[in-house]
Specification:
The chain is built from ten helices and eleven strands. It is of the alpha+beta class. Strands 2, 3, 4, 8 and 11 form a five-stranded antiparallel β-sheet that branches. The chain has a three-stranded antiparallel β-sheet with strand order 1-10-9, with no helix packed on it. α1 packs across α2, α4 runs antiparallel to α6 and α9 packs antiparallel against α10. The chain starts with 11 loop residues before the first helix and ends with a strand. About 30% of the residues are buried. The N terminus is likely disordered. Bound molecules: protoporphyrin IX containing FE and FE2/S2 (inorganic) cluster.
């Protein structure tokens, strides 16, 4: 949480996460090498290595993209999200090794500048199978570098959360470029069917998971009717909200999280200031709304992080009448105290 930028703090969870990540990548590279040697004994070591690192990076990117929707569908996946940025940096490093191996093998031997060679070595032929696929990989690598280089909380604090989040949505552009890279590359290689099939399965998984999570979220959005009493609209029954947790409602397209705790009701914007995590899926821990993604905390009455932290989310005025929660759709500025409504029986 941001008071000011602080150096990385390691903890046991981060170390375990990284150990599993590095162990998983090492196991993948080893198995890839063994399978290639068994089934394709004529493939040279350089080509085996560039394929191993390229596919490892692409596979890890699939995992990274699937973590978000998986967490929406089942909170058991939340531990994967906690250090997703470490997976992102690892993905870039694997892609970089793949690219360096490719450049050293195919582009460094001639008179042309090796980077320029990526763009001019395969001229357009007019056939789909001849589309130069390497420039797609190059631009994807540039984006992955940008994301890895700005992944630290230092950049999140300095660029501000909305700018950082928009920048990191470029991961979907990188993914699209890589789908093109692998598709057109596969059309030109002897193992094309295998790569194309695996990539199609991966793409389908990413799309289906994102669509399922979005549909589930839309279904959960209870868009409140416009009719109101004194500006307030009826949101839900007090009994619908589990203790120390929230019920999410949608007000003019904005998600609002209504929390029940210690005989009171408070409502805040659902969007965490860290990386837009869903506050309404978190719970109240030691009196603070705790984001389920990385644990940023906010006081339910004010929407402000407890001192010395400085994050603030908008609050909403609430009332409780006859066991029903009423809410003023107009948000208060972030960090503004909104008197909690007392639950009377
Ligand atoms: C400068 C950037 C890049 C260049 C020049 C490049 C070039 C190549 C080449 C020449 C191949 C075919 C290798 C062969 O089988 O002989 C290939 C395949 C592949 N690349 Fe890249 N690539 C780049 C970036 C990337 C990135 C960023 C990723 C993933 C994150 C990636 C993932 C793959 C995958 C999955 C394959 C298919 C497996 C294979 O045939 O090696 N590439 N790339
Ligand atoms: S999104 Fe990271 S703590 Fe909320």
């Amino acid at each position: 949480m941001g008071v000011e930028y602080k150096a990385v703090q390691w903890n046991r969870q981060k170390r375990r996460y990284d150990l599993v990540l590095v162990g998983g990548v090492a196991a993948y590279l080893f198995i890839f090498g063994a399978v290639t040697e068994w089934f394709f004994p004529n493939v040279t070591e350089e080509i085996m290595l560039m394929r191993a690192f390229g596919t490892a990076a692409f596979l890890l990117l699939h995992v990274i993209l699937c973590i978000g929707p998986l967490c929406r569908l089942n909170p058991k996946f939340l531990p994967l999200l906690y250090n997703r940025r470490h997976a992102g940096v690892t993905c870039f490093l694997l892609a970089l090794i793949h690219s360096v191996l490719v450049i050293a093998t195919y582009h460094a031997g001639g008179d042309t500048n090796p980077i320029l060679s990526i763009f001019v070595s395969s001229p357009l032929t007019g056939s789909v199978a001849g589309v130069p696929f390497q420039p797609f990989g190059f631009f994807a690598l540039v984006i992955l570098f940008l994301l890895a280089a700005t992944s630290h909380d230092f950049w999140l604090a300095n660029l501000t959360a909305p700018v950082w989040k928009s920048l990191h949505l470029l991961v979907y552009v990188a993914y699209t470029l890589l789908v093109l890279h692998v598709t057109f590359g596969a059309l030109q290689g002897e193992t094309g069917v295998v790569y194309f099939g695996a990539m199609a399965a991966g793409l389908l998984t990413v799309i289906v998971l994102h669509r399922t999570a979005a549909r589930r979220e839309r279904r959960g959005d209870l868009e409140l009717p416009g009719d109101s009493a004194g500006g307030f609209v009826e949101a839900c029954a007090v009994a619908d909200i589990p203790e120390h947790r929230a019920r999410m409602v949608c007000l003019s397209g904005e998600r609002v999280a209504i929390f029940k705790y210690d005989g009171k009701i408070s409502a805040v914007s659902n969007v965490c200031q860290h990386q837009n995590g869903p506050l309404g899926e978190g719970k109240i821990v030691f009196g603070c709304i705790t984001c389920p993604w990385h644990g940023y905390q906010y006081l339910p009455e004010t929407g402000a992080s407890p001192p010395p932290f400085v994050e603030q989310v908008p609050t909403f005025n609430v009332r409780v009448k006859n066991g029903r929660v009423w809410i003023d759709p107009k948000p208060n500025p972030p960090g503004t105290r909104a008197e909690p409504a007392l639950i009377t029986t």
